[in-house]
């Protein structure tokens, strides 16, 4: 059950209008790594979670908080659009430089949204539910969630340097602070899964009958680049993070299977076959001799 509290989690009020920056702010609302994505991703992961208790609560708590961030950013965008010029002539009357700002605005904010936020990214591309991942495997999902927070934080940090508005900057500072918590939280949740014995790396664990292949390929770094710079990396030597093997470095990877030779295709599909003798309905004409 959800309920809506009219108060915002944090203030979302700019010091003045800026339609051009409102367009940029759309990225952290309706972009691939925006708040609409993480809010729905965490909620769907929570609704799909088969473990009652702390993990399900974690997902639903953070998903609910992120929905509040959606409201904050949408409110900020709407306020940035207040009193924005609707035409170039109107913009130039006030200040010739305002025309430049007008040119950077998103017409859809006024034509579609009536001066309000939209479920789109900064390029106007609609938000897509395909951005979400809710796999049912908590280890896989928590690692992706940490990535999502890192990408979202990166975009907020970049936007921070694209505005001089003190009110906007203060809201972005708050979002950065919460993203700091969420990044650390998901990484801690990964460790909690290990401590609880629920999931381990890799995700999922190797098949029981693949021990030989795991031994041969599971911890070997294959260097396909010129030189051997990659051999200096942590991923090429020493113990693997899963604690089950040790990294090896292979500077001259070789093939383990011959060149594939495919048999002729069904002539009814009209593929280009080697030495093909075509004929209507002739299913045997392309059999190799």
From TrEMBL:
Q: What keyword terms does UniProt attach to this protein?
A: Calcium, Manganese, Metal-binding
Recorded hits in InterPro entries, A to Z, give: Ferritin-like, Ferritin-like_SF, Mn_catalase, Mn_catalase_dom
What cofactors does this protein use?
A: Mn(2+); Ca(2+)
Residues holding Mn(2+) 2: 66
Matching entries from SUPFAM superfamilies are given as: Ferritin-like
* Molecular functions (GO terms): metal ion binding
List of residues binding Mn(2+) 1: 35, 69, 149, 182
Per the record, the domain of life is Bacteria
Q: Which residues bind Ca(2+)?
A: 57, 61, 225, 227
- According to the record, the residues making up region (Disordered) are 230-289
**Ranges of compositional bias, category Basic and acidic residues:** 243-257
- Cofactor, how bound (note): Binds 2 manganese ions per subunit.
Family note? Belongs to the manganese catalase family.
Q: What is this protein called?
A: Mn-containing catalase
Q: What organism is this sequence from?
A: Micromonospora krabiensis
């Amino acid at each position: 059950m959800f309920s809506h509290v009219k108060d915002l989690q944090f203030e979302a009020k700019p010091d003045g209008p800026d339609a051009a920056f409102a367009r940029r702010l759309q990225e952290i609302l309706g972009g691939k790594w925006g708040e609409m994505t993480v809010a729905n991703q965490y909620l769907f992961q929570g609704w799909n979670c088969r473990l009652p208790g702390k993990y399900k609560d974690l997902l639903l708590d953070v998903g609910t908080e992120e929905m509040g961030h959606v409201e904050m950013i949408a409110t900020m965008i709407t306020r940035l659009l207040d009193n924005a010029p609707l035409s170039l002539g109107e913009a130039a009357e006030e200040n010739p430089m305002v025309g430049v700002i007008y040119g950077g605005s998103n017409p859809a904010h006024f034509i579609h949204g009536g001066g309000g936020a939209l479920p789109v990214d900064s390029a106007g591309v609609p938000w897509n539910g395909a951005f979400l991942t809710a796999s049912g495997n908590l280890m896989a999902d928590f690692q992706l969630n940490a990535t999502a927070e890192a990408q979202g934080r990166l975009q907020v940090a970049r936007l921070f340097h694209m505005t001089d508005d003190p009110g906007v900057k203060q809201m972005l500072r708050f979002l950065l602070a919460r993203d700091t918590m969420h990044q650390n939280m998901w990484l801690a949740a990964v460790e909690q899964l290990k401590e609880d014995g629920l999931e381990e790396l890799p995700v999922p664990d190797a098949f029981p009958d693949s021990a030989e292949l795991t031994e041969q390929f599971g911890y070997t770094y294959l260097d396909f680049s010129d030189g051997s710079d990659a051999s200096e990396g942590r991923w090429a030597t020493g113990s693997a993070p899963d604690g089950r093997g040790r990294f090896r470095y292979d500077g001259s990877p070789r093939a383990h299977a011959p060149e594939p030779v495919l048999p002729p295709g069904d002539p009814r599909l009209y593929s280009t076959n080697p030495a093909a003798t075509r004929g209507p309905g002739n299913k045997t004409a392309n059999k190799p001799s």
